[in-house]
Design brief:
With 678 residues, this protein is α/β, with parallel strands linked by helices. The protein has 21 helices and 25 strands. Helix 5 crosses helix 7 and helix 8 crosses helix 9. It is globular and about 100 Å long. The two termini are 44 Å apart.
Amino acid sequence: DFGPADNSPLLTSRLLDLLEWASSYYHAPPGEALATALPTILRNGGPLPSEKYWRLTTRGMGLPEGALQRAPKQAALLAVLQQGEASHQSLLDQGFGSAHLKALVDKSLIENYQRPLDGNQGGTNPNPNQALADKALLKEAALALSADQRQALAAIPPQGYQCLLLDGETGSGKTEVYLQAIEKVLARGKQALVLVPEISLTPQTLTRFSSRFNRTVAVLHSGLNDKQRLQAWCAARTGNAAIVIGTRSAVFTPLLNPGIIIVDEEHDSSFKQQEGGFRYSARDVAIMRARHEDVPVLLGSATPSLESLYNCERERFQYLKLSGRHGGASQPNWELVDIRRLQLGAGFSGAAISAMSEELNAGHQVLVFLNRRGFASTLLCHDCGWTAECKRCDARLTYHQQSACLCCHHCDYRQGVPATCDACGGGQLLYLGQGTQRGESTLEALFPDTPIIRIDRDSTRRKHAMSDYMAEINSGKPCILVGTQMLAKGHHFPNITLVVVLDADNGLFSPDFRATERLGQLLTQVAGRAGRGDHRGRVLIQSHHCDHPLLNLLTQKPYSDFAQHLMTERQLNAMPPTANMALIRVEAASARDAEQLLSAARRLCQQKIAPSPALRYIGPFPAPLERRNQRYRYQLAMVARDRSTLHHLLNQTSHWLEADKQARKVRWSIDVDPQDMS
């Protein structure tokens, strides 16, 4: 029993076509793609939200006039329903109570039924926003635009597909371009879909859009409960929500009358699904959805991905540039602080402490960037050198002071803190490495009279925690923010004049070929939080490798020069975006099983499926974190100049894997256009 049929299809034919394309492109089962597009309640067979309505029965329709003279309230209720069906709430609002309704039910004159809140009764579904035509579109006036902003806005077509990349420095006014582009869309009775990479950005974005527009804004992200997600999904589907703001999976939200799609921080790796069989990129799906819907799609970033820059070079995208900061604010000054041979106070150099004191005394705010949660990254025995490691992963456990436990940030394994060394029984246990909790404790000791606000996944788990922190920061009072990359993206803090990056070296020597690109993006983004108000900002970057050419290029030249240098490297090595890549990932109980399966797959591809010099194979090789959650992880990379050649190879290989007996003993998945080699 599947329950009653829906009054209308849950997904439009265009959205179904998009899901079919995504399933094919990412070599994922169609069911997984469809499941991603549906809210959990609908996925589990639940109904659409409904509302109780009242109508006349056949007997009620034939009731002679004046039949209820002795019950004037019942007669009045009957007269209302003779004009047409009415919702339960509307009848209550008109002064009719449950007793009146029950009396007419007992006389078999009226009946109730549940009407789905899908806005589609009898095959008609007018756009609810048209009913707002007599209501002002804007709550507040739009801001004056710079010449670059006006040019960018004019380049966005009113209708028809076009992909545009808006490359704007941090603080250059990209959001104002989004808002005014959406204003034009809403004025035509259409909807806008806005994708953001992180939940932490959603409250700020929602506030900005709700303050500007006199229209309903729906929000979709994983922080909502199932009922809230379904309500927002339905509001988008029926057109009741003129603007839909969401994270990755919101790209599949049905829209009644789409007019524009915007992807903010398009470079962010959070847009790529990293787990499961359906490893889609929300940015790339958004571009393809815009094609299907025949609407423009606008990608925005201060640090565009190499993929998007490459597409602009190939004239697949239109390139738009915003130069300088909006309102005349200056870009911050960057300074490298060489910390070799320095005595550091829990990770802070004397130069950093002095700079923080100076800015706080001037009444400003400071941001300390430390992209590592917890108190200390390593628990080490001073006597024998033993370190506390996860029993399930090839990773060290992180010490969390507030919960007094050791935690693995890969599989969430937790254990208590030992009193003595597990290896030698010694009692000299040291906490090494700097995490946000330790940074918070250090700063509280250094600046006891200054509020310290820590923002990371641990501190923002409480409901409304992020919005509470934002309100405190936006008050403008002197404080120190210490946090992870959650603070690096999109936030506007006008009173921050100093950014301190404690450790900039992590991305310089990673085995992942994208690590340097991510490092450059992250440092540029976090530096962009400084000096967005009336005072010029400073950025102090602590490093053991201040002579590294990439760090010098990043701090002395525009980000575009840094990106072009990386693009040249990728071209010389025939790596994405100048080539196309896919990974076959395998997880197995033994490393031998994983490696043997991928070795067999490589031999098959080279000898039978695609014995072509146009294809390159890398591996099989263990993932940087080889063992996670008690399973060994191996990868085989396939690289091709031609995309169709690569997909033909993947089709044939996936068919072989599905039929192979050894493959049934392991977990395997295909990752097209991988963004993370870990």
